[in-house]
Amino acid sequence: MATSFNPAERRLLWLVAIGFFMQTLDSTIVNTALPSIANSFQESPLHMQMAVVAYGLAVAAVIPASGWLADRFGTRRIFMTAAVLFSLGSAACAAAHTLNQLVAARVLQGLGGALLLPVGRLAVLRSFERDKFLDAMAFVAIPGLMGQLIGPTLGGWLVEILTWHWIFLINVPVGVLGVLAARVWMPDLRQANLGGFDLSGFVMLTVAMVTLSLSVDGLGGLGMRHATVLVLLLVGLAMLAAYWLHALKVPKPLFSPVLFRIQSFRVGILGNLFARIGSGAMPFLIPMLMQLHMGYTPAQAGMLMLPVALASMGTKRVAIRIIRRYGYRNVLAINTVLLGVQIAGFALMSPDQPLWLRIVQMAVFGAFNSMQFTCMNTVTLKDMDAANASSGNSMLSMVQMLSMSLGVTVAAALVATFTAWFTPATAEHALMAFRAAFVSIGIVTACSAWIFWQLRPDTVAEGELHRDSPAG
């Protein structure tokens, strides 16, 4: 029997769902527009990855602070602030005339996007009784999945029919309506006797994420000197070590080392980080390859991503049955290897292949990718107790966005590196650079199966899979 919501509950759910839709839409809509934006800025399309990476890093950096900010200043105020920042960032993106301006605007947009979903989810968690919570989160999740589904296609269509500026301008009126609606419908929830925020730990983690990402990107996309790359890498590793030592001695760290005593969480977080690099790279690489070397228009390249999203949505229920039958370790180990093989298989794409073969290839990838996300997310959180659930979920969300950014960064660096290797610079050699990047990313993904093999042999408890994160 379907859960019924009263009018006030339904209005809150729609408000949070729209915020989720905006956040997921904007994480995918830019990819198909990158060649057009590059042409407008007179930049190489292979140098545009920072427009995607900047957004993902901003979201990853702010997610750990989202819960504390909502508890301190109230869910209504923070949600309204998030919608304002997202709208201002979107307008600034549309007004950008250089890549640096676009990257700065994407950071502002990411700051707003980072707060929309976690704060909205927190409002739902505290406003609904336990017997309604799962149905409430399912209600919120559907628009988020729709954002992922239509993002690439809508982005390509807007670029062709209008200009690339409209992929950002469409957010502005939605954001304004979100602010007005939140003022009326969002409950002003906050927590009494709130402790202090671990600012030192937050700064250490943020610096670590940014410097490590820049060090990878500096190998190819940004063209940094090797000494600069080495310094950034060392700074990032030093900040990670400093955070770990800091977290061991402070009473309330941002993420407690106690979390990593839970074996399934430890394996799940590491697996998410490395296995998602391949999944994060594909939405960047495929539209770029299709437009630069396969003769596709932006709209056609965007529509080619539809089979991935449709197969992903259609596989969810099948994935749950398979996991219940064979267990997390077996499914993750085998599925990760198969996913890596499929990513490497995109190196076989050529302009003369029939369209139906390409659609099948994309759909199969979407199905296995969905299986991977469902299983990874659930195994990471399945053994969390109530005291650690919120912190563990925040870390999982942060790692998901960080790995998406790393995926784009690694993909761009590999393509740039292989392009430099394959000389002279011809169209055939440029295509070979993309193929080599697909193979390399596929190998990294397949090798991460070893991480999941460290899980204990298991069975899946009834109801356990309902903990899967709506964000995927």
TrEMBL record:
SUPFAM superfamilies: MFS general substrate transporter (SSF103473). NCBIfam families: efflux_EmrB, PRK10504.1. Gene3D superfamilies: MFS general substrate transporter like domains, Multidrug resistance protein D. The chain crosses the membrane at residues 12-34, 46-66, 78-97, 103-124, 136-158, 164-185, 197-215, 227-246, 267-289, 301-319, 331-349, 355-380, 401-422, 434-453. Residues 12-460 form the Major facilitator superfamily (MFS) profile domain. The keyword Transmembrane applies. This is MFS transporter. GO terms for cellular component: plasma membrane. It is found in: Cell membrane. InterPro entries: EmrB-like, MFS, MFS_dom, MFS_trans_sf.
